[in-house]
Amino acid sequence: MQKRTTTRPPRSLSLDRNIERLRQQLTRLTPFLSKGKEIAASTIDEFDGETERLLREILGETSELVEAYEYAQLGEAAGLVNFPDEAPESGAHDVDRESLNQRKRVLESCISELEARRAAAGKKKRVGSQAGIGPQVADHMTPDIRSVHADATLQEAGRLMQQWKIGSLLVADDRYYVGFITDTDLARDVVARKVDPSTTPVKACMRKPPVTIEGKQPIIEAVRLMKEKATRHLAVTQDGTIVGVLSVSNILRYYSGVA
User: Fold this and answer.
1) Are 124 and 70 in contact (CB under 8 A)?
2) Where are the chain's structural domains?
3) Residue 28 backbone dihedrals phi, psi, to 5 degrees
4) Is 138-256 in CATH node 3.40.640.10?
5) Gap between the Cα atoms of 86 and 75, Å rounded
6) Tens of pLDDT along 211-229?
7) Per the CB 3.0–4.6 Å rule, which of 103, 149, 176, 258 could disulfide with 253?
8) For position 194, what pLDDT does the model report?
9) DSSP one-letter code for 240
10) CB 217, CB 190: distance < 8 Å
11) How far apart are CA 18 and CA 11, in angstroms?
């Protein structure tokens, strides 16, 4: 026989459900607040018993709000909960109404408390998620894309790198980015292979295809990919479109804390 298991609902779902339960209890209290309406003592006692059990279940036995509700039944909760200042009421009937109003305000305070917890839990979850992923590539890439045409000469590529003071260019044909050319490639091919930079096209020496990484990936993944592909430059993509470049320099600036 398959083992039967029970699972606990996520905290956010529990908060949502408990907030809704308290709102329902608040709705049940509303008719009691109508002026001139006589309420049987047994009816309000039953309501109080249910509410106290609900508050203890949701907030815990030691919650100050549970104690505040007990005092609200006596009309003495104003000092325990931050109620707005109102003109004092007189007469036995008005005292009863004041105790009902205090019950209402305690329930409203309970709902506010749970809503604050829910908001804090959501924020913590978002921060925790970001911490788990780490800093993203898109946050540290160079968004200005500098490129050279594949048919341009190595000499032209070198001139553009010098002009823009960068160490690499994306190589484009008439439709797509098809590779990378770096200052290291130029030095290797022009000096070591003795190619003529004034006549040799960039496409003869470029690295192809460009190694890409999605901008939402963590920086550590970019480091891993650079090592794996033996490259110092990555084309950063968003939904399949190149939107920037990440180089070793970008990564070093991040790890050294330089903006």
Assistant:
1) no
2) 11-133, 138-256
3) -65, -30
4) no
5) 13
6) 999 999 998 899 999 999 9
7) 258
8) 84
9) T
10) no
11) 11
